Amino acid sequence: MVESEIVFPSSSSLSSFDRSTDTDSVAGSPSLQKPSSSTTRHHHLSRKKKLGRPVGSKNKPKPLLVIDKANKSVVKPVFIEVPETYDVIRTIVKFARHHQVSIIVLNASGTVSSVTIRNSHYHASPFTLYGPFKLISLTGTYIHPHCSFSISVSGIKEQCFIGGVGGKVIAENEVMVAAVIVNKF
Fold first, then answer.
1. Each residue's pLDDT tens digit, 10-51
2. Count of other CB atoms within 10 angstroms of residue 130
3. How many CA atoms lie within 13 A of 102 on its CB side?
4. Which range of residues forms the domain containing residue 110?
5. Which of 33, 55, 105, 162 has the highest CB neighbour number within 10 Å of its CB?
6. Do 164 and 120 form a contact (C-beta atoms < 8 A)?
7. Looking at the structure, do residues 106 and 175 belong to the same domain, yes or no?
């Protein structure tokens, strides 16, 4: 069996901080002291940290979202049904004027028999296409008294036409327009 030998530093190698005249020193070495009684008590009283919510805490309900009906800028979704042979853009504008609201058109579905498109890239005059055409998308805004709409349609031979609306867009079948009412004017 190997015996280990404890070597204590000499008193000359100790700093003034390590030198102590405490009577509780171990084996006469000032650097090796017994743990203080507060450290011992703390060691015995330590417990595992409890998991979960603190004692007394509760799940507090979140406040309800209240929409003031007097607020003029409430967003409200609407669907506008455009009968056949009616002008889609004129129907949207007429709806907005009747309800005195600004409107944002998100999309439309259905078929149109003719559409007047203006191409802003070439500064050319608007031209009318005669279909039937399937509506791919119709987006735009009507903010009293101004309106601006963009349209894309596809023809029978998979031809696509995209541009700004420069005139009438006549519905061949019933056209459904998805829009959002923004505010009253």
1. 555 454 444 444 444 445 445 555 555 555 555 555 566 666
2. 11
3. 16
4. 76-184
5. 105
6. yes
7. yes
